[in-house]
Each structure stands twice: as structure tokens, then as C-alpha cells.
Amino acid sequence: MSIEYSNLIAIRNLSKNKLEGQIPGSLGNCNRLVSLLLHSNRLTGSVPSELGGISTLYKLRLDQNFLSGSLPGPLRSKFKMGMQY
């Protein structure tokens, strides 16, 4: 999807799509995103800190992937409890 249209999307449900690779930091440019569901894929690497810059984001699911490291500071403080990683 072109980045010019990505700002129009409020909910991205990409769960259970067998996605592989790293979560792109460019998702941080989706400034109207309220829900990002990436669980049950084959994602690897760390969670990009750019996701913490999405002020409208209130739901983030990253569980059932192969992610490493800890959540970046902005996300850790935003999702203190109830975060599924």
C-alpha cells in the first residue's frame, strides 16, 4: 500500500497472514492508526521505536511472533499493562 494512503487507515489487522521479516519503522508514519494487529505471524527482529510516536495508537498486538528484545521506551510507557507481546 502506498504511504500516501496509509494515513487514511485507522485499523490495520494483519494478523494470521504468515508475514515474515521485520516490522517496518515506516508504520510510525501512520498518524491516524488506532489499532495495529500483527499477532500470529512470523515477524522477527525488534519492535521499531517509531511506533511509539503514533499518538492515536491504543491497541497493539504483537504476540505469537519471533520478536526479540524489549519494547522501546515510548511503547513501554504507553502500554504498561495488558500488552500482548
TrEMBL record:
Keyword Magnesium part of the UniProt annotation: no
Protein keywords: Repeat
Gene3D superfamilies named in the record: Ribonuclease Inhibitor (3.80.10.10)
InterPro entries per the UniProt record, alphabetical: Leu-rich_rpt, LRR_dom_sf, RLP29
Entry annotated with the keyword Repeat: yes
Protein name stated in the entry: L domain-like protein
Record organism: Rhizoclosmatium globosum
Biological classification of the source: Eukaryota, Fungi, Fungi incertae sedis, Chytridiomycota, Chytridiomycota incertae sedis
